[in-house]
Amino acid sequence: MTDLRPPPTSLLDAYRGAEFQALYVTTVRVSGGEARHARASGCIRSDDGALDIVLRLPEEMGGDGGGTNPEQLFAAGYGACFHGALNLLAARHGIAIDDCAVHVTVAFGRDPVDGRHTITADLVVKLPGHDRTSAERLVRETERICPYAKMAREGIASTVRVET
To answer: Do 109 and 164 belong together in one domain?
Structure first.
């Protein structure tokens, strides 16, 4: 069995560089699969092969279901990142949060601003055995440092280009 350990709390140390400094980079390839439509039958594979899944359109959106979808993947990433940041902060502050859990609800729906689509995310952080005031303080601090929370709040640097 592998000796799994959390990352060092030094990841919380402030960076003072002038440019973005990548600590980890990954690339995934998404293709359309059987229906030639990524949401309906897409294939996702990471460059290292660790992620290799098939997407399925949920029944609620007219699909057959039976697989995962982009909203579940986003919820999983957001929840894992927030949980990790929360644990690092707790460790730095000497707070034990052994039974903590992050529940993430992601909804895909209609955007009343432009009539198109948008995504919403709601997190519920469960910290049993902790008083509400200190739990809220820790969660608010986590919101400030979690990259997914920051992305959800402020947006993300993103580019789209075409190759033929």
So the answer is: yes
| pLDDT at residue 1, as a whole number | 67
pTM: 0.93
CATH code (residue 84): 3.30.300.20
Phi, psi of 13 (to 5 degrees): -65, 140
Cβ atoms 77, 148 nearer than 8 A: yes
Torsion of the alpha carbons at 145, 150, 156 and 157, rounded to the nearest 10: -30
b/e map 113-140, b = 16+ CB within 10 Å: eeeeeeeebebebebeebeeeebeebbe
Q: Residue 62's domain spans which residues?
A: 1-68
